[in-house]
Amino acid sequence: MKLPITIILVLFTQMAVAGQYSGCTDPQYISYVEKRHAFYEKLDKERYQKALEGMNENEISSYQNVVLSARFDTREIALNNIVAYEKNQATILQKLKNSFVGTSDSIHNINIAKGWLALHSGNEDEAISYLLASTEVKGSPVLGSFGPDKTLIRELYKRGKKEAVLKYLELSESFWNTESAQNFIMVWRRMIKHNCPIQFQFYDTTSIKELGL
26-38 burial, b if ≥16 CB within 10 A, otherwise e? Predict the structure, then answer.
């Protein structure tokens, strides 16, 4: 029986992809992930700069750029932006008279931002505490669809904080539990188990096949 050409192409592609790297310590794979990390940071810096160009210094609280500020601004500026963001979110909640709407997103963002500040100050344990605190939320449409922040775990994982990352993923399952979310978390757990460099992006679902895991 002859197979349709599309199926043949898919099978050929899968065979070509599988085992592209010799393993997680393959220099080519390590270099690839390092380049991707640099690309994400560059992209985030550009996105933050573009946002800043369209608002004055008092308007950052109107945007969910508080995490980016904690990553790229000075500590003083970042702390001021966190305070402004907290005040802005409190005002919104008061107007809406709803203690749930927006609460989860703001709690998550603020803790991730504080985690970045702690990390920049050299306090990894404090950064981990903020990381885990960011998951103490009931969830929201945004967190449920797009998931929790991946930037802080990317950096902590690079520093060897594997258990903290695993705990963060576990806690995030309470509000990020779509089918795709479950697949991502499964992929990352498997890669962590094998000490693989990770992007914490959807590209990892391809990498895990290329690594033969």
Answer: beebeebbeebbe
Cα(152)–Cα(155) distance, rounded to whole angstroms? 5
In angstroms, the CA 211 to CA 209 distance is 5
125 alpha carbon, distance to own chain's centre: 19
- Per-residue model confidence as pLDDT tens digits over 81-93: 898 888 877 776 6
Length of the chain: 213
What's the pTM? 0.84
Taking the C-alpha atoms of residue 147 and residue 169, their distance in angstroms, rounded to an integer, is 10
Whether the CB-CB separation of 52 and 73 falls below 8 Å is answered with: no
For 150, the token pair is: 């991946």
**pLDDT per residue as tens digits for the range 50-97:** 888 876 555 555 556 899 999 999 999 999 989 888 887 777 666 665
CB atoms within 10 A of CB 1: 2
Which of 100, 70, 101 has the alpha carbon at shortest distance from 85?
A: 70
